[in-house]
């Protein structure tokens, strides 16, 4: 299926507007990583993934997605809403008391599209491997996707899971790393260097794919298609998705400052002036 890149870019612009408005409204949240991963989420939910917005928790015969770095919930919620899982108007309740749209996704709120609570970092890869194994056991040929942050790779559980998947030939799994080089306290290089990530994943037995332009929609779509073509060949696949924190809003780009800071009124207006309203604000 060919992708309509222009349509995907229009959706991505609206999702970015949603993100900055949601975080501004409650003066809390994580805009930087959300903006950086927008193109991936839109390409995944509006092109690459086979999924059903009517939502069944078991996800039989459909692709599954797990968000491991749950603090970028704004982009996840916006994408789910725009894909039809729940009304976009509900985005206005982000991080409010009794809202289903909590700061980190939770399952007890029964929000369509959410299959795991993801607050504590480092657990999503393990969960996705379990789901992928279950699909194999059930003769379900659908795929499992998971997104992790690069700072999250400093967690030990990630590497236990990374050893397990190739050993058990979990080849219906496509992991992605948001490779923006920034975390809450600074650059990943300064906080705890990740070294040569490609070499690490390859040494653990993964099929590694670099997407150098993680904020270029055509490149992200092509990368996801390439990753899908590599499944079913005895190895799990991991995409190193080179993104820029805060992408789309010039004053947020390239700085870890906006990892978890909300824009003020003036900053919101500056952001919205850079992000075209395409399919309607909530």
TrEMBL record:
InterPro entries: THDP-binding (IPR029061), Transketolase_N (IPR005474). It comes from the Bacteria. Its cofactor is thiamine diphosphate. Keywords: Thiamine pyrophosphate. Gene3D superfamilies: 3.40.50.970. The keyword Isomerase does not apply. Pfam families: Transketolase_N. Residues 10-270 form the Transketolase N-terminal domain. Belongs to the transketolase family. This is Transketolase.
């Amino acid at each position: 299926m060919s992708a309509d890149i222009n349509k995907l870019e229009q959706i991505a612009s609206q999702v970015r507007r949603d993100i900055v408005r949601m975080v501004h409204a409650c003066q809390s949240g994580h805009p930087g990583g959300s903006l950086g991963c927008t193109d991936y989420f839109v390409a995944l939910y509006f092109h690459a993934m086979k999924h059903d917005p009517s939502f069944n928790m078991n996800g039989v015969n459909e692709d599954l997605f797990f968000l491991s770095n749950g603090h970028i919930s704004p982009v996840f919620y916006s994408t789910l809403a725009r894909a039809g899982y729940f009304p976009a108007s509900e985005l206005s309740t982000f991080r409010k008391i009794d809202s289903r749209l909590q700061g980190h996704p939770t399952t007890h709120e029964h929000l369509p599209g959410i299959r795991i609570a993801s607050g504590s970092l480092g657990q999503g890869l393990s969960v996705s491997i379990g789901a992928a194994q279950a699909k194999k056991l059930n003769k379900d040929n659908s795929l499992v996707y998971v997104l992790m942050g690069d700072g999250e790779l400093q967690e030990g559980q990630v590497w236990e899971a990374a050893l397990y998947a190739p050993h058990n030939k979990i080849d219906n799994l496509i992991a992605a790393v948001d490779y923006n080089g920034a975390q809450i306290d600074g650059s990943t290089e300064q906080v705890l260097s990740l070294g040569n990530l490609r070499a690490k994943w390859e040494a653990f037995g993964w099929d590694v794919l670099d997407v150098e332009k993680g904020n270029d929609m055509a490149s992200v779509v092509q990368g996801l298609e390439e990753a899908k073509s590599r499944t079913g060949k005895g190895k799990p696949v991991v995409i190193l998705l080179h993104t820029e924190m805060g992408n789309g809003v010039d004053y947020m780009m390239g700085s870890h400052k906006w990892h978890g800071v909300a824009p003020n009124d003036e900053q919101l207006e500056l952001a919205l002036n850079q992000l075209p309203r395409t399919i309607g604000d909530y």
